[in-house]
Amino acid sequence: MATLATPAEKKGQQVPEEKGERKPRPRVDEKFKIFCGTANEALADEVCHFLGLTRGQATITRFKDGECYVQIQENVRGADVFVMQPTCRPVDEHLMELLLMIDALKRASARRITAVIPYYGYARQDRKVAPRVPISAKLVADLLTTAGASRLLTMDLHAGQIQGFFDIPVDNLFATPVVLPYVREKVAGGAVTVISPDAGGVERARAFAKKLDAGLAIIDKRRPRANEVAEMRIIGEVQDTTSILVDDIVDTAGTICTAAAALKKAGATRVLACCTHAVLSGPAIDRLGGSEIEELIVTDTIPLRAAAKASGRVHVRPVAHLLAEAIRRTHDEESISSLFDS
Fold it and tell me: Which residues are catalytic?
């Protein structure tokens, strides 16, 4: 994939190195603004650095009863505004922050408001799996649209069909371009098989295997009886290969750790795992520590917990440059899909 260029690079200007002190470059377009909530301010600052922008000023506080209060602290009239906020833990608080920011910007006469949600919470509740349950992913889509979002920019949706829940344009980015180069280095020189931990992730694993020129296998998880540990059957050849488990989300890590044990038992020499969104809730870190997984490769769409950083099992790949380029192209009305053509 071609290296993502910043606006300064496109004009032949010198760009500071990524390492060392990061000095914000002057804003060149007062009608191009980026704001963020409290969910992942570090990622928003990195995106602003790549774009040469200063993050928009907003006040986000809470009243004594827990209600969220938002005030935009600068003029946005007629501006093309991007609001960054992954809806990660605590999901409801971060979602409410985002909705209130969008409403405030709409009432302040912003020309266009793009909700940049690197991790789209509630995405796993995308259909009715039992009687009398909501389709929460659809409800969140309706809330964002009603609040005033003009379009959505997200990354690796749990199900691509969620794009159809929106009546506004949706751009679903893929983390593969930032994860793949590191994985290639880790597995160079040996036989590789990419594994989907369930039937629903086969398309994602197939695309990853194709780019890696690797084999493909699927894990069929069956539970013989209620409350019994699921039996995992591997469909495909993994013996004497480096096996790479590929998923969009790792939450409690139960599935991938059990899958890794099954792969080792089937003869895999090494087991790596890749995911875009490192939710890593509950016992996830302890499970990873006692598993057959050599390394879990994730992105920083969600801030990593301190325990995950200290575990030594989790490697983070930054996505700020990818998000920044997608935001720039959206602002300049350029193609985003061409980012992933090569």
Answer: 221
